Each structure stands twice: as structure tokens, then as C-alpha cells.
């Protein structure tokens, strides 16, 4: 549920920019990534559940440029893409309920 406000605020902005400016816009939500903020900078080993930044970018490039996806929700080694798909589906349902009621 934590992503619902982000998606709700960012999605309309992306669509409005695409119609006004010559820009491309995507919604990218990475999973658990081992970066300097999570200890990589200090030399800590990557946890088994985390992805590397390179894995995350490779996934994003594949989804955006090869498959043409607007929403890119990057899984990690602990949470499957199916779980993230359900998150997006539930956030869309919540927004639809708000619009209709």
C-alpha cells in the first residue's frame, strides 16, 4: 500500500507532460537494491534477496525499450513480479473506488 500515493501523484503528471512537452515518461519502482545506502559502499556483501543496481537497470531497459511498458515494477530475489503486479492492480482498484464514490 505504500506505493499507492506515489503512483496516484506521479501517473497524472507523467501523462500531462507527455501531451505538453517532447518527453518520454515511465513509472519505475525498483525492488530491494544493494546500493551505497544499503551497505555496498562500505564493502558489505550483497544480501541474497537484493538485486545489484546493474540488474535493476537491465530489467528496466528490457521492460521500457524492448517491451514498451509504462509501469516498470522491478522485482527482487525475495518478492516476485506477481506480488508487485497485484500491488499495482490493488492501487488501480483503490483509485477507481475513489473516482466513483
Quick recap of the structure?
With 101 residues, the protein is mainly alpha-helical. It is 50% helix and 6% strand.
Describe the structure.
This protein is mostly helical. It has one domain. It has 3 helices and 2 strands. The chain has a two-stranded parallel sheet. The two termini are 20 Å apart.
Protein structure class: mainly alpha
Number of spatially distinct domains: 1
Order of helices and strands: HEHEH
What Rg, in angstroms, do the CA atoms define?
Answer: 16 Å
The number of helical runs is 3
* Beta strands, count: 2
Shape category: globular
Within the largest sheet, what's the order of strands?
1-2
What proportion strand? Answer: 5-15%
* Overall average pLDDT: 75
**Uncertain ranges:** 1-5, 95-101
| Biggest sheet statistics | 2 strands, parallel
Helix content percent band: 40-55%
| Separation, N- and C-terminal Cα atoms | 20 Å
Amino acid at each position: 500500500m505504500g506505493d499507492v500515493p506515489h503512483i496516484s501523484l506521479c501517473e497524472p503528471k507523467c501523462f500531462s507532460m507527455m501531451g505538453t512537452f517532447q518527453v518520454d515518461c515511465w513509472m519505475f519502482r525498483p525492488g530491494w537494491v544493494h546500493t551505497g545506502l544499503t551497505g555496498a559502499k562500505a564493502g558489505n556483501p550483497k544480501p541474497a534477496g537484493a538485486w545489484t543496481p546493474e540488474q535493476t537497470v537491465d530489467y528496466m531497459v528490457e521492460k521500457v525499450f524492448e517491451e514498451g511498458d509504462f509501469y516498470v515494477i522491478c522485482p527482487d530475489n525475495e518478492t516476485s513480479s506477481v506480488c508487485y503486479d497485484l500491488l499495482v492492480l490493488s492501487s488501480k482498484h483503490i483509485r477507481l473506488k475513489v473516482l466513483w464514490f
